[in-house]
């Protein structure tokens, strides 16, 4: 289960010590408030994996651990549940909602005394890292923190099969034992299919739409398929070119 106190456990095999600062502890509490236990554990595992990658991959060694931890802890705030859904937009991708919530959280006056040393650059790193965490082909070419957030989240889905080849079986087992998956595998499709129903226009051009096509059923599926076909990137671009022909 998710640890009941804000102190992060030490992982001796993985040689990971998640930074326990007033700000990271507050971010963990905030994530628990907005998202499910399964999502929180996913974020904690992703933090551990990101820190392992930062230690093992020299190009990312300069990443600030606190900034990295905050970005990974809050990367799925866009999955806010129940009453917390009121904090989400109706027209933005969940990654952008999460990035906005994280930036607002760090800048909130109530925790400003915990955020010493946080300038616009660090805030922008957190925003970019969360907004781009599902777009590794872009994140990989950004700053180390941004790249590591994407790599760390991916590691929770690939484990020892991570494309960098840096997560050992023993490290993987330790991280998952410390922060169990709970019902994450069952919850993930429900969350993403929910986005396809609640705000489909934000899912047509990205991976969330794939979950919609695979997981929705009946009338919801047919409605979504029609919307995706009409509003997919290829349809929009080619349709736009055709519409412009009258001016050429």
UniProtKB/TrEMBL annotation:
Know the name of this protein? HD domain-containing protein
Q: Which Pfam families match?
A: HD
- Domain HD, residue spans: 40-140
- Enumerate the SUPFAM superfamilies for this protein: HD-domain/PDEase-like
Which PANTHER family does this one have?
CYANAMIDE HYDRATASE DDI2-RELATED
